[in-house]
Write a structure and sequence with these properties.
- It is a single chain.
- This protein has one domain.
- It is globular.
- By secondary structure, it is an all-alpha fold.
Length: 103
């Protein structure tokens, strides 16, 4: 995912994230947008391509990573959400077949 796409997704999801976190001030909107954009890129790097318009599970995982980042606990995210990351990577992972391989 490129930076522009990540920033657009962050803009589109800012209000929903703030509502979920019960953040009513706009003083940290720039920081939150950066955290959301980084989270979109990071989660996509971990699981592969996805459909951000139709996958609420993916968006939830992005919000969770952003929440950890917001609370300065990012180092615990991967360990705490390892099974969710694996689940999504299995859903979106690419199957590579190579007929030249002999067993």
């Amino acid at each position: 995912m490129d930076k522009t796409t990540a920033n657009n997704l962050a803009d589109a999801n800012l209000v929903a994230f703030k509502e979920r976190m019960q953040i009513y001030s706009s003083s940290r909107d720039g920081d939150i947008k950066r955290m959301l954009a980084t989270s979109f890129q990071e989660i996509e790097n971990l699981i592969g391509s996805y459909d951000p318009d139709n996958d609420l599970y993916f968006i939830d995982l992005v919000f969770q990573r952003t929440r950890y980042d917001f609370n300065d606990k990012l180092e615990f995210f991967k360990a705490n959400f390892q099974s969710d990351i694996l689940d999504l990577s299995l859903i979106y992972g690419e199957v590579i077949t190579d007929d030249s391989l002999e067993l």
